[in-house]
Amino acid sequence: MTDAKPLRADARRNRDALIAKARELFADGRFDLRFDDFAKLAGVGTGTLYRHFPTREALAEAVYREELTAMCERAHEMQATLPADQALESFLRGFVDHLHHHEGLARTLATLMATQSGALAEGTQALGQVVADLLAAAAKTGAIRDDVGAGAVMMTLHGICAAYDHPSFRTDADGVVALVLDGLRRGEP
Amino acid sequence: MTDAKPLRADARRNRDALIAKARELFADGRFDLRFDDFAKLAGVGTGTLYRHFPTREALAEAVYREELTAMCERAHEMQATLPADQALESFLRGFVDHLHHHEGLARTLATLMATQSGALAEGTQALGQVVADLLAAAAKTGAIRDDVGAGAVMMTLHGICAAYDHPSFRTDADGVVALVLDGLRRGEP
DNA sequence: TGACAAGTGGAGACTGTCTCCATATTTTTG
DNA sequence: CAAAAATATGGAGACAGTCTCCACTTGTCA
């Protein structure tokens, strides 16, 4: 899981430049730029880009890794300081809220979830684990049912992410969260 | 909405050949074939393919239009013969069941929902209308809440479609439906 | 049957992806 | 500190799909 590669100085510099430029472009909505151009704009060669990030998705993952990690950590904090079912609710609502203000992350998550390509989906797997933990904890207290797995909730989250650019995104996404939460809280199978 | 084009005989023949071959290939899982090859395999020229179906998605939509229409009609029948909330439940369960046995349709729906490109998404819009009708009817009887719109339910359906090839598809999709139904049935906002 | 409209097909232009390797930079070693 | 070894670079060009264009064929209608 942890990297054991002491990257050469210039290599790290280029890698960082790539990520920085990509972050800037993504935030600007320029997501589907010609891939080679990311390299040009970051001031490195095409080969260098491909060596560091074999695919557009790999680059996106690198760009949003921190953000995703932060999100997972926040969930852990909540789990430590709030009653289980409130932690779950806060997480889901926070998830939608965050997506609402960070389209890039939503797009990335939608893509990563769609292509469940093992190596790259590391980030989404972490998210899945977080959801599973939240559900398990809430189920143990009896606050929610235990016959619906994290996979189901992840599916709904995927649906939410995929709609990041719909005009009624916020309303609909909030609706989904309401359905999921109330559905979960309805005790019996 | 209705076509007003009297298509020439050979044109119709080619169009049908294209759809037939595509249906066959899709059912076989050969979805991402080189687009030009659809033409070659159907025995027509590249230009002809592009004239009839400007994009891969347009072809997919044509292939699954009947299937989608049938699905919508089934919903209408249910609505005419069952209590509103049962119609809704049957439809959602039937939806998952159908997808489970028709990956191609699932893939197509996922794609069409993602690219909300007006012209092509005609099929999904019909689906959205059906869901809206089912919800409205059930809400009027008081069987379900009325503060969550069809858009939210469509989001969850999108999530379901997008996961058509996950190993745990059926379990998770059933879970989503359970959450949605129970979430909807929980009366108060 | 002739004239006109409608449709065809496939060569090749075009566009983006990705590889390859001679060259350059960094790190290690003596 | 210099040479050797290891590591990384960049961008020309091969390649693979997509899609357009138009000289030619087929169908339709009077």
Could you give the topology of this structure?
2 copies of one chain form a homodimer.
Chain A: H1 9-27, H2 35-42, H3 46-52, H4 56-81, H5 84-101, H6 103-114, H7 122-140, H8 150-162, H9 169-185
Helix pairs in contact in A: 1-2, 1-4, 4-5, 4-6, 4-7, 5-7, 5-9, 6-8, 7-8
Chain B binds a DNA duplex (30 and 30 nucleotides) through residues 7-11, 14, 34-36, 39, 44-48, 50-51, 54.
Protein name (chains A, B): TetR/AcrR family transcriptional regulator
Domain HTH tetR-type (chains A, B): 12-71
Organism (chains A, B): Micromonospora parva
Describe this structure in words.
The structure is a homodimer of 189-residue chains. The first copy, chain A, is mostly helical. Chain A folds into two domains: 7-53, Arc Repressor Mutant, subunit A (Orthogonal Bundle); 60-185, Tetracycline Repressor, domain 2, CATH 1.10.357.10. Chain A has nine helices and no strands. In chain A, helix 4 (56-81) packs parallel to helix 7 (122-140), helix 5 packs antiparallel against helix 7 and helix 5 runs antiparallel to helix 9 (169-185). The longest helix of chain A is centred in the middle third of the chain and has 26 residues, at 56-81. Chain A is elongated, with a radius of gyration of 18 Å. In chain A, 39% of the residues are buried. The model of chain A has no long low-confidence stretch (mean pLDDT 92). At the A-B interface, helix 6, helix 8 and helix 9 of A face helix 6, helix 8 and helix 9 of B. Chain B binds a DNA duplex (30 and 30 nucleotides) through residues 7-11, 14, 34-36, 39, 44-48, 50-51, 54.
